[in-house]
Write a structure and sequence with these properties.
alpha/beta, Rossmann fold, Immunoglobulin-like, 17 helices, 20% strand
Length: 669
């Protein structure tokens, strides 16, 4: 990419051909240079098995190419045609309750079905043969949103595929029994064909079974992607991608997906009712960049309201621009919307688009055109990296494990803690990377583990080595408890992190709904708050959800519980190990009640520099040669201590930078 690619999903099959030329003219006006095409047209190009009609697709491909608009050609396999479902009812999706789901939507298909896979390979082969060498096809959009509605299927075909997957993984059923701890309740298997899919059952289904089922389901979707990608590669040199849904698709482990695609692309939709939705957007972008290992692209986001949230709130003036440029600031080299022209029929007719129902005499259209102009001025940022001194640990498998049934508290939620820690760092203007617990962490001054319930032996050794070699680690409660099979690590909790943290836990104490705890600083700890210069957490911190009976074994208490079942015992600890330091929070600290202070203290101890003087509500990110200042507040602000030239206006700033309410300023050195 030489420029930031700009465009959206284009569905010309919904419109008469007379509209197509108007669309192309408007695309040129808006600066659109890439569209996703053919994502849902399987039933149009193959109206009956083995019968193909390329008339309309040929014409639109030629028209787009003629006008210099690149094509991201979709394989339409997320929406199988009615004739396939009719001829092969066995491909239909079976849900957790054992119900076979009807048609009328997309994704209603078993991902393990050999019939479905064969049909996918056939239509993709036809597409690749016909368009693989076409100069207008610059990218392949394989499928659409793997795992959106059919992340798991519980049909008999899936059950048989799961048994084969287990046999391949464990080779011997005795190894499976050992890994799963099947001696408990006598759930021992004597052959792989005795293992059932973990659909609706009495409570207490073996958690190791459920975890492997989730891994299997993820792998089935990866296999389907590989099948199509490899068919395309026989006929086309264009790169291939599929649109991830980070972080909102729990069932897909995108660390495992990343190496399969040529370009990492992501769908992100603002959760409009969240007051901090701009922070969740930034988290999505940072996590996508981490999965990509560098620049990436937004395959779908919205110009305004979506159609599927409980209350589909329209974006405020300037929000389209702020959202889009925040993605660019955090590594996106492409911005695509769903969709180009708002639909008049179907389930998404109230979903916003680049061309709204109101047409071009609208503020939304003018914003779309203006954004296209902005992106042309940002070419120098394409391909550049986003620097970060801090990493937040993220593991999809730990998410799966934490939220299985029969945990100590229903309030244990993976994203709740990750988002709390991320939001605190965001508000302190700290740009973060995300990392897998087994990844190389040596480049980071500080690593934060907000929710690491499941940690492998390799991960625990990795974290200990990171600290011993000079790293600073912050760990939140109920971390390091089990291994990858949901088996408790040997010895007292937290077995995987006990030596790293210098403590052990005698008992967990989940709190009642709404219950809170007072926390007070330990004046003898000798650890000062970065915010006040006084003992850390002296400012009346509080905890909720959880407390623990912490026993020190090398660590020292920085703060103690002042109320609740663990009153007088350590609530926050610090352990100096080797050349580094590990911090532990034994309760859920929130930003205003201690989390900001804890992280500020840890950031200072780790030597992480933060920009000074940036007002609240202003997002600051440095990418390549550019600094992005995004004012999410309704107040004009001035940021001191910055200098540079505004890329979008040409105005030079020497000592301070004004950022009007709701606006974006991008400085270059």
């Amino acid at each position: 990419m030489q420029t930031i690619r700009y465009g959206g999903d284009y569905n010309p099959e919904q419109w008469p051909e007379a509209t197509w030329r108007e669309d192309v003219r408007l695309m040129r006006e808006a600066g659109v240079d890439l569209v996703s095409l053919g994502v849902f047209n399987w039933g149009l190009i193959e109206p009956a098995r083995g019968e193909y009609d390329w008339t309309d697709l040929d014409r639109i491909v030629a028209l787009l190419h003629e006008h210099g608009i690149g094509i991201n050609l979709g394989t339409p396999t997320s929406s199988p045609p009615a004739w396939l479902r009719k001829a092969h009812p066995e491909i239909r999706l079976v849900d957790f309750e054992g119900r076979t789901l009807a048609g009328g939507s997309r994704h209603g298909v078993c991902p393990s079905s050999p019939v479905y896979r064969e049909a996918c390979a056939a239509i993709v082969e036809q597409l690749a043969v016909r368009y693989g060498a076409h100069p207008g096809v610059e990218l392949w959009h394989v499928h659409n949103e793997y795992g959106w509605a059919n992340v798991e299927c519980y049909c008999e075909v899936s059950a048989l595929a799961f048994q084969a997957w287990l046999a391949d993984k464990y080779e011997d059923v005795d190894r499976l029994n050992e890994a799963w701890g099947t001696a408990f309740w006598g759930l021992v298997y004597r052959s792989f064909d005795q293992v059932e899919a973990p659909s609706a059952a009495p409570p207490g289904v073996n958690p190791a079974l459920r975890l492997d089922w989730k891994r299997f389901s993820n792998d089935q979707h990866i296999a389907n992607y590989r099948l199509q990608r490899d068919v395309i590669a026989k006929h086309s040199k264009a790169p291939a991608t599929t649109n991830f849904m980070i972080p909102n698709c729990e069932g897909m482990d995108y660390w495992r997906w990343a190496g399969e695609v040529d370009v990492v692309s992501n769908n992100h939709y603002l959760i409009a009712e969240r007051e901090d939705h701009q922070i969740e957007l930034s988290m999505s972008a940072d996590l996508t960049r981490a999965v990509a290992g560098g620049p990436w692209m937004i395959m779908e986001h919205s110009t305004s309201a979506v159609n599927w949230q409980p209350r589909n709130i329209a974006k405020t003036p300037g929000e389209l621009r702020r959202n889009s440029l925040a993605h660019v600031a955090r590594g996106a080299d492409g911005l695509m919307f769903f969709q180009w022209r708002a639909s008049r029929a179907g389930a998404e007719k109230f979903h916003s688009a680049m061309v709204p129902h109101g047409g071009t005499d609208t503020e939304l259209w003018r914003d779309v055109v203006a954004l296209g102009g902005d992106l042309k001025a940002l070419s120098a940022v394409v391909g550049t990296e986003v620097g970060a001194d801090v990493a937040v640990l993220w593991d999809w498998e730990a998410w799966w494990a934490l939220e299985l049934e029969w945990r100590p508290s229903v309030d244990l939620r993976f994203r709740e803690r990750v988002e709390a820690y991320y939001a605190s760092l965001w508000k302190q203007h700290v740009t973060v990377d995300f990392a897998h617990p087994e990844a190389d962490l040596s480049a980071y001054r500080l690593v934060v583990a907000p929710s690491s319930y499941a940690l492998s032996d390799a991960a625990s050794k990795n974290l200990r080595g990171y600290v011993e070699h000079g790293g600073h680690l912050v760990v939140s409660y109920f971390s390091g408890i089990v291994n990858e099979h949901d088996t408790v690590h040997a010895g007292p909790h937290p077995g995987a992190l006990r030596e790293t943290l210098g403590l052990w836990i005698e008992e967990f104490h989940p709190l009642r709904e709404g219950e809170g705890l007072a926390i007070e600083a330990d004046p003898g700890a000798g650890v000062e708050s970065a915010a006040s210069g006084r003992p850390c957490l002296e400012t009346g911190a509080r905890g909720r959800i959880w407390s623990e009976h912490v026993r020190l074994d090398g660590a020292r208490a920085v703060a103690r519980f002042a109320s609740g079942p663990d009153a007088g015992r350590p609530a926050l600890t610090r352990h100096d190990l080797g050349r580094g330091t590990a911090w532990y929070a034994a309760t859920a600290l929130d930003e205003a009640t201690g989390l900001d202070e804890l992280l500020a203290t840890a950031l200072d101890a780790a030597g992480v520099e933060r920009p000074a003087g940036i007002p609240g509500g202003v997002e600051f990110v440095r990418r390549g040669p550019m600094s992005f200042l995004i004012n999410h507040s309704d107040q004009d602000v001035t940021v001191p201590g910055l200098r540079g030239t505004d890329v979008l206006t040409g105005v030079a700033h020497q000592r301070s930078v004004p950022v009007p309410a709701g606006e974006v300023v991008i400085l270059t050195d």
